[in-house]
């Protein structure tokens, strides 16, 4: 291995570990990298399987962010290669070692232990074969079974080389070491919506690689229009929280490629977390249908063997949309943030560039215009004025400002700084991946949660591919899937509390898909793992509950209309079934009357008493018998006329049903794909004449910067 070259870029390092001052020798400090190495569980690296999953997730999300940042439809290719122990030893420069005393090694087993292991593996293999046969009979999809001796939670040490390539903006050549090798350094800090949950990104993967394999990360990067490709090989000095650069090079960019390619070798467990990786990719394709995702897994079995073919996986999630959501924008705090953060006002007063107190209110917070700022300044009382300089505010006065902001009423934020998936993309993703029979969607207006804008989007589907009966809840936060601890999530709790029978939905037998996407400048996660959103926050719980109910109400309307249509078709089918018999009976009666010397009513039993059992139209009788004699009325003509009558009545009932549904009973929403990133506003709904078509015209579009 070449000698290490240490980057001396300053800032954010945290200094060397050691004693602080000249006091107690036990008083020491740790760098951020050391802290996360010792507490890697809070970043999703608690075991080998979860670490493999988290590394893939971090790399993929960084790739999506990089492409979206420059307005390019993402193309992300992921390769996971299993590395054998021999290959790993070669990579770290160890020669093959021939054992002299096998009993010294941990993997040595006696004949008795070997017999027990073989017996146990035979039982597991038999169980796996039965399960595979059952799955095949049910037509379920699946890949390789994994190793039998990895079952029942036995964690076998394995190594994997992960490579992720994208077509994004790339990284500045000189910034690459700090962006990848210095913890808590990045470009996503501030009050804005981001995919990341910890601000660590790929840095934690590099720490895990350093800890488990000792191998560096390899990076290739190029920015748009750049005539060279940056290549780095680096790792991280954990004690100093600084990058160690092993290789730095610039190569000609002959293909005009732009993006980044990261490759890292880590310890992992594919068998235990294979299902989570595949579920993550599938759900990511739902919430980002505008991205093309490629995934390939290559096992370490001998090339061409049956076992390798069974365990290798290759997936491609095609792009189904051409329009991305608008980029999230940095924003200011909502005034209600003062309720959650007692230090917020003090920090903003210290860092503001405004010269007046009213300007401070107006520029440092959202939802406060100049008039409102002046009213707040007057409300503060004695010792305050609208022209007061923020730097002259004392700590006591700052506490008064914080108290006022925490208790005053403010309008909800606009949400223009957020980048939700959008109803169109969310519906399209669900339709693409699940193919449901019915689907409904809803997007809530923006609301303030802890001083941060928040938007809830929801979809509810019925039916579909590979969807089990009952509830299937899919959760997303800032457009990334959440796969763990779903039972405690606000979306799951709202689904369980809802009375689905009100909406004509059978919660036990119907295949119900519930998709809830929450975007915010700060997602209120619960727990250190940040894998779920609790329902303790009444505002979020109410917004999620409302979104799901709106979708369920839309589905109820569709179900009612479908059932009414089914009933009408059944009634029409029943009537049509008896038309031939009725026509034959009627024609036989008319033909008999035509052959008689007198009209039918004259042959009635009580004709002499001049009391008819029913009203008689003599003229109609004469015309009908005459037409029967001249063959103007036949059984075929009667059948045709009766079928026309059934059709007419059916159409009239359908029209009446539509009118009862306020003319919306048969209306179906049609979503058209816009060719721009404009936010559209619409005119009121128009209905020309008595047609069944309703439409809304576009107002002048507003560009979201």
UniProtKB/TrEMBL annotation:
Membrane-crossing segments per the record: none
GO molecular function: ATP binding; DNA binding; DNA topoisomerase type II (double strand cut, ATP-hydrolyzing) activity
CDD domains: TopoIIB_Trans
Principal location class: nucleus
Biological process terms in GO annotation: DNA topological change
Region annotation Disordered: where it falls in the sequence: 1-30, 133-157
Compartment annotation: Nucleus
Biased composition (Gly residues): 9-24
Superkingdom, natural source: Eukaryota
Family: Belongs to the TOP6B family.
Subunit structure: Homodimer. Heterotetramer of two TOP6A and two TOP6B subunits.
Purpose: Component of the DNA topoisomerase VI involved in chromatin organization and progression of endoreduplication cycles. Relaxes both positive and negative superturns and exhibits a strong decatenase activity. The B subunit binds ATP.
Protein name, entry field: DNA topoisomerase 6 subunit B
Organism field: Bathycoccus prasinos
